[in-house]
């Protein structure tokens, strides 16, 4: 991408979360701890699923992929922010900004799609239990995962290529701690009509369709569970969906706070940036804990990863 020839800029300045040196040190310590715990927690989920044959099922297959996506999503933004806080030189190259934009869009939309696929998996497990292994076959799971990757890759790539074609004005200051799409578009000298069209139509489908499909899946699940005669059976059915519902609520709650509330005064913009920090750092951190909180199979697999006690005959 020959962005420098077209834009006349060699990089951007990320304004970050705070310009106060004392606050920057505190933010560095906090976000470094959050990042390390996030990566460790999600990789433990992946390792537990891969090492325990009892977890080799579609539900845990998609959970392991969700954990990998969470690692990718937080790694797309947090390490760069930590480097800026430590060096106090928040300048990012033009190519680096485009790369960050691509990976952030890729992993964010991947999580959106994976949560939808996981809702479909729970729908099949509860509403069509006798056909579950036929419907959610290895081939079907692989096809669903590949569709998620290809669709989100094309969407992220389209925005990245279109941003690379934009001319930018003298200002290089991005009012954010990472290269997000809307703050970059606001720096363009020309009207980014192509990006806005992709965002409005293609992005609108990607944003609105998954939650509608999730709602449809859970409408079918609720209808099926209500037909279960015993209270214990209803509780067991709903317990298999509780973790997924918690993660979905956390994901879409932060997305709404970051992207759907209109930009306003300076205080509102700072609140949006704080919500983005919550979205990029805290949400991926909580996902593995939410899924492992009440899952005895996952508990057992995680315990088996620890050091095994050896007994000796006295």
Sheet of most strands? 3 strands, mixed
What's the number of helices?
12
Shape: globular
Secondary-structure class: mainly alpha
Name the helix and strand elements from N-terminus to C-terminus, one letter apiece. Answer: HEHHHEHHHEHHHHH
Task: Please tell me how large the radius of gyration is.
Answer: 22 Å
Helix share of residues? over 70%
Q: Which consecutive residue ranges, at least 5 long each, have pLDDT under 50?
A: 1-7, 309-314
State the end-to-end distance. 69 Å
Biggest sheet, spatial arrangement of strands: 2-1-3
Could you write a compact summary of the structure shown?
The protein is mainly α and 314 residues long. It has twelve helices and three strands.
Topology:
Layout: H1 3-7, E1 11-14, H2 21-51, H3 58-75, H4 78-87, E2 91-93, H5 94-127, H6 132-135, H7 138-164, E3 173-174, H8 181-185, H9 193-226, H10 231-260, H11 266-293, H12 296-304
Parallel strand pairs: 1-3
Antiparallel strand pairs: 1-2
Helix pairs in contact: 2-3, 2-4, 2-11, 2-12, 3-5, 3-11, 5-7, 5-9, 5-10, 7-9, 9-10, 10-11
Molecular structure report:
The chain is an all-alpha fold. It is 75% helix and 3% strand. It contains twelve helices and three strands. The protein has helices at residues 3-7, 21-51, 58-75, 78-87, 94-127, 132-135, 138-164, 181-185, 193-226, 231-260, 266-293, 296-304; strands at 11-14, 91-93, 173-174. The model is unreliable at 1-7 and 309-314 (pLDDT under 50).
What are its keywords?
3-stranded mixed beta sheet; mainly alpha; 12 helices; disordered N terminus; 314 residues; disordered C terminus; 75% helix
């Amino acid at each position: 991408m020959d962005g420098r020839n077209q834009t006349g800029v060699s990089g951007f300045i990320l304004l970050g979360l705070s310009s106060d040196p004392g606050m920057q040190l505190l933010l560095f310590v906090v976000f470094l701890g959050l990042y390390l715990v996030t990566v460790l927690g999600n990789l433990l989920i992946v390792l537990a699923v891969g090492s325990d044959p009892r977890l080799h099922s579609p539900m845990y297959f998609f959970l392991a992929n969700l954990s990998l996506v969470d690692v990718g999503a937080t790694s797309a933004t947090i390490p760069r922010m930590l480097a800026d806080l430590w060096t106090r030189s928040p300048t990012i190259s033009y190519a680096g900004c485009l790369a960050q934009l691509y990976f952030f869009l890729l992993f964010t939309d991947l999580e959106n799609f994976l949560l939808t696929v996981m809702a479909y998996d729970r729908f099949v497990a509860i509403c069509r239990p006798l056909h579950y292994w036929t419907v959610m076959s290895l081939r079907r799971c692989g096809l669903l995962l590949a569709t998620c990757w290809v669709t989100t890759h094309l969407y992220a790539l389209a925005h990245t290529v279109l941003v690379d074609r934009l001319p930018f004005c003298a200002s290089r200051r991005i009012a954010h701690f990472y290269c997000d799409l809307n703050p970059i578009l606001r720096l363009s000298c020309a009207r980014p009509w192509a990006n806005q069209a992709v965002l409005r139509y293609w992005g609108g489908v990607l944003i609105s369709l998954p939650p509608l499909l999730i709602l449809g899946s859970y409408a079918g699940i609720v209808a099926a569970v209500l037909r279960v005669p015993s209270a214990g059976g209803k509780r067991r059915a709903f317990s298999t969906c509780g973790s997924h519902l918690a993660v979905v609520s956390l994901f879409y709650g932060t997305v709404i706070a970051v992207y759907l509330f209109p930009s306003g005064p300076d205080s509102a913009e700072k609140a949006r940036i704080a919500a983005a920090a919550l979205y990029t750092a805290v949400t991926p951190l909580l996902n593995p804990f939410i899924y492992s909180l009440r899952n005895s199979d996952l508990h057992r697999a995680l315990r088996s990863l620890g050091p095994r006690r050896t007994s000796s005959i006295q």
